[in-house]
Amino acid sequence: MSDIEDCRMISLQVFDDGDDGYLSIGENSRQLPFQVRRFYTISRLEHDGAVRGRHAHKKLQQVLFCLRGSAELLLDDGFKVKTLKLSRPDLGVYLPSGIWHELRDFKDGAILLVLASEVYDESDYLRDYEAFRHHVRAHPVS
């Protein structure tokens, strides 16, 4: 399993095109530590109590970007917890497998982009927190 310290910021190249805005670029094997096999967006998070995530993955790795607005990201490896704020479209967070994560406190019309290392597979999800903790203890970090 992964340790919370394995989570890290992913910084995209940013080009300032003056009046034409900013361009942020990321490439597999440069900024991204895996080949992207799936991506999705999360939006319309206007409800004050909205929470996304609340799960971990056995195999899948992902990078989360907040393209608009901001969100709070809670990371938990079963032993340690860390909270980060996502608020820049050029700065994402890499989540290796085995990290419980929750997104909340969405502000200013938050839109999130998630890049995933695997196609959707329900059997890869750990959706119950106690089952996640049991899984982590059965598969310690090497």
Structure description:
This protein has one domain: Jelly Rolls (Sandwich). The strands form two sheets. Strands 1, 4, 5, 6, 7, 8, 9 and 10 form an eight-stranded antiparallel beta sheet that branches. Helices cover 7% and strands 48% of the residues. The longest helix is centred in the last third of the chain and has 10 residues. With 142 residues, it is mostly beta strands. Strand 6 and strand 7 form a beta hairpin. The chain is built from one helix and ten strands, in the order E-E-E-E-E-E-E-E-E-E-H.
Layout: helices, strands, pairs:
Blueprint: E1 8-11, E2 13-16, E3 22-25, E4 38-42, E5 52-57, E6 62-76, E7 81-86, E8 91-95, E9 100-116, E10 125-126, H1 129-138
Which structural traits does this protein have?
globular; single chain; 142 residues; two-stranded antiparallel ribbon; 1 helix; eight-stranded antiparallel β-sheet; Jelly Rolls; 10 strands; mainly beta
